[in-house]
Design a protein that fits this description.
Layout (H helix, E strand, L loop, with lengths): L1 E8 L5 E8 L2 H10 L3 E7 L7 H6 L4 H16 L4 H11 L2 H15 L4 H6 L7 H13 L2 H58 L5 H36 L1 H13 L3 H22 L4 H11 L3 H15 L4 H6 L7 H13 L2 H55 L2
Antiparallel strand pairs: 1-2, 1-3
Helix pairs in contact: 3-4, 3-8, 4-5, 7-8, 8-9, 8-11, 8-16, 9-16, 10-11, 11-12, 11-16, 12-13, 15-16
Length: 401
């Protein structure tokens, strides 16, 4: 939600200024008019750059939404009305979640449906979430939808936690190696190699390479940092273009081991989401279109959009998926065909999601087990090279006396 500064006139013609929090300027104007004022101007309030850290701290995370959904589901299934459940939640949560819950409650009490109320908080609630809540309202099965949503979101959080937890150790080790090597080259090696210059000793090739690399880093490390920053910035700008995003996503899928792992992680969440939406009464066409807008990879997103067009023309979902082997593996199209024939698409997609989850979890464990000894070997080679490059000249000097 954004804060807007408004100028308005009351019924007596008196000038009134103030602030409102809204999703956009139209919503802000509606809130001001709701106070019985005539809007003159509305401007977006510029945030102080120092408030960025506070905003980051108060952000609403997927874990917060999962907890919110579980609590709301429990109360609705216990028979409490939506307004009373939101009122209780407002008193339990803190910070940004409390503000958002209060706004959702105010909109619902004002006559809006829950799907419309949470739809104004698109940064917190995904299009999938909003579509599912809307289907629950239309079908009169809000309690079942919220229960499924809570279960699904908790499984997603658990799965993401497993993947991150398995990869964080190798990432820390590799990062530590890079930092230590950088410090050694700039601050430690020059002091050690100055000894050889004093004795004017003939240096082995390994030592010459080490001194040359250390000298280069010592003199040009600021330039390397600047070039690295420009490279990251340029890559981010390139990824913002449609062609750049598609090209980089294609390259990510082609990476050895990591590419297959990333695709299976995305497909795990995709099939789980599709299963949830289809099982909650959302049409497969709408589910495909919604998923195409929220999936994190352009290759799969484009495949979903094309599949939705094929389904709209009357083709089976399995046939549409089979046309995109770069995005969907053969197993998925075959299982979807079974789901279409049996009429149990949601159950089949749920089972496929479990298969992808198990495979990706196994790949993460295998990758972690393979990275640890590889890192140790690389660390040993690096230390061995440093020892040889530093100790060998000292041995040559002492043998001359």
């Amino acid at each position: 939600m954004k804060r807007y500064i408004y100028k308005a006139k009351d019924k007596t013609g008196k000038l009134v200024t103030g602030e409102v929090e809204a999703s956009n300027d139209k919503h802000a104007a509606k809130l001001v008019r709701g106070k019985g004022l005539i809007v003159i101007s509305i401007k977006l309030r510029r945030e102080n750059p120092l408030n960025i850290l506070r905003t980051f701290k108060d952000r609403i995370t997927p874990s917060d939404i999962a907890t919110f959904t579980r609590q709301l589901s429990t109360m609705v299934n216990a028979g409490l009305p939506i307004t009373e459940a939101l009122l209780i939640l407002r008193s339990q949560v803190k910070g940004s979640m409390q503000k958002m819950t209060a706004q959702v409650l105010a909109d619902v009490e004002g006559g809006e449906s829950l799907s419309v109320a949470i739809g104004r908080h698109s940064k917190a609630f995904s299009p999938t979430y909003i579509a599912l809540v809307k289907s629950g309202e239309v079908g009169g099965v809000m309690d079942e939808v919220l229960l499924r949503l809570a279960d699904s979101m908790e499984k997603q959080q658990e799965f993401k936690g497993k993947v991150k937890g398995a990869l964080i150790y190798p990432a820390i080790i590799v990062g530590g190696m890079v930092v230590v090597g950088f410090v050694m080259m700039i601050f430690v090696i020059p002091r050690l190699t100055s000894l050889y210059e004093e004795f004017d000793a003939e240096l082995p090739m390994a030592t010459q390479i080490l001194i040359g690399l250390s000298t280069f880093l010592m003199h040009f490390w600021p330039l390397l940092l600047v070039l690295g920053g420009f490279a990251v910035y340029g890559l981010s700008l390139y990824r913002k273009t449609p062609a750049g995003r598609k090209k980089t996503d294609e390259l990510l899928f082609k990476l050895p081991i990591f590419g297959d792992l990333q695709r299976e992680v995305i497909l795990t969440e995709l099939t789980r989401t599709l299963s949830l939406m289809v099982g909650s009464g959302v049409s497969i066409l709408e589910a495909l279109n919604i998923s195409a807008g929220v999936v994190g990879n352009v290759v799969i997103s484009d495949a979903l959009k094309d599949s939705a067009k094929q389904v709209e023309k009357g083709f089976p979902v399995a046939f549409s998926f089979a046309k995109h082997p770069e995005a969907f593996p053969y197993l998925l199209s075959q299982m979807v065909a079974v789901g279409e024939e049996t009429g149990k698409m949601d159950e089949v997609l749920k089972k496929v999601s479990h298969v992808f989850e198990v495979e990706s979890d196994q790949k993460v464990k295998t990758l972690t087990a393979a990275i640890e000894p590889l890192v140790m070997v690389l660390l040993g080679l690096g230390v061995g090279f440093l020892v040889i490059a530093i100790i060998l000249p000292i041995y040559n000097l002492t043998s001359q006396f």
